[in-house]
């Protein structure tokens, strides 16, 4: 898949300049080391806990205009190119806040973010809040999700599994169950966990459907997936 380059954006120029200055100035090396260890050394950290980071983000965005899709694309891709993980968190928060400004054309960008320095801390939020929002706004993108669930990249497949996480009554149950079965035999922890999580979340809407699905397919679902699916449901 072709790599998407950050488009020109005056908004992104302003935001990134402020962001590096504000976040960098607040870095806490003593906190950074355990944060990096907790995330299995996936990336360096500045040492900004979430409440402090969000406080700093308000200062970064103060007085800026509402971004459009080009601006959001530029900020996200440029944040992802910075080494410290908190910059990616800033981008995810911004995308979540303005997801309704994104068109279906943003999906390739979302995929690039999912595949770049992937770990659950960014992938899961992109899946549930960004990719899920794009598909909800343009149901034609379900065809892309059908392709993603087949992908060899486990994070892309995990995104497909989790994209309906917040849909509740609007969940395409047939598709959710089909995705779970498609990856039921995958050996990786993160996909087995995602199967259970997606089912458990839907069980808050329709517990009987989830119980019936698990009962019918317990022989192919991993024990981890079953435990996660039925946690709090029984």
Structure description:
With 234 residues, this protein is mainly α. It has two domains: 8-101, Leucine-rich Repeat Variant (Alpha Horseshoe), CATH 1.25.10; 105-234, Leucine-rich Repeat Variant. Helix content is 64%, strand content 0%. The chain is built from 13 helices and no strands. The protein has helices spanning 10-25, 29-38, 50-61, 69-80, 85-97, 107-115, 120-137, 142-148, 154-162, 173-182, 189-203, 207-217, 223-230. It is globular and about 55 Å long.
Features:
mainly alpha, single chain, Leucine-rich Repeat Variant, 2 domains, 13 helices, 64% helix
A few lines on this structure:
With 234 residues, the chain is mainly alpha-helical. The chain contains 13 helices and no strands.
Fraction of helical residues: 55-70%
Mean pLDDT across residues: 97
Radius of gyration: 19 Å
CATH class of the largest domain: Mainly Alpha
| SSE order | HHHHHHHHHHHHH
Provide the domain count.
2
Shape verdict: globular
- Relative strand content: under 5%
* Class from helix and strand fractions: mainly alpha
Report the biggest beta sheet as strand number plus sense, adding barrel if it closes: none
Q: How far from one another are the termini?
A: 43 Å
CATH fold annotation of the largest domain: Leucine-rich Repeat Variant
Unreliable stretches (pLDDT < 50, length at least 5) are none
């Amino acid at each position: 898949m072709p790599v998407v380059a950050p488009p020109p954006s005056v908004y992104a120029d302003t935001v990134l300049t402020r962001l590096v200055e504000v976040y960098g100035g607040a870095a806490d090396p003593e906190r950074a080391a355990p944060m990096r260890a907790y995330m299995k050394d996936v990336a360096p950290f500045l040492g900004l806990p979430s409440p402090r980071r969000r406080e700093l983000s308000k200062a970064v965005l103060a007085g800026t205009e509402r971004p459009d899709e080009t601006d959001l694309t530029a900020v996200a891709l440029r944040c992802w190119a910075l080494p410290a993980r908190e910059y990616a968190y800033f981008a995810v928060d911004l995308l979540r806040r303005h997801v309704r400004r994104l068109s279906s054309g943003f999906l390739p960008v979302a995929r690039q973010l999912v595949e770049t320095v992937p770990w659950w801390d960014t992938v899961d939020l992109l899946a549930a809040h960004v990719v899920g929002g794009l598909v909800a706004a343009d149901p034609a993108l379900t065809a892309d999700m059908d392709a993603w669930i087949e992908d060899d990249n486990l994070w892309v497949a995990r995104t497909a599994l989790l994209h309906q996480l917040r849909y509740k009554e609007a969940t395409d149950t047939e598709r959710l169950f089909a995705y779970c079965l498609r990856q039921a035999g995958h050996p990786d922890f993160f996909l087995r966990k995602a199967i259970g999580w997606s089912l458990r979340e839907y069980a808050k809407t329709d517990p009987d459907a989830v119980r019936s699905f698990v009962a019918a397919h317990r022989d192919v679902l991993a024990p981890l997936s079953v435990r996660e699916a039925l946690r709090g449901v029984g």
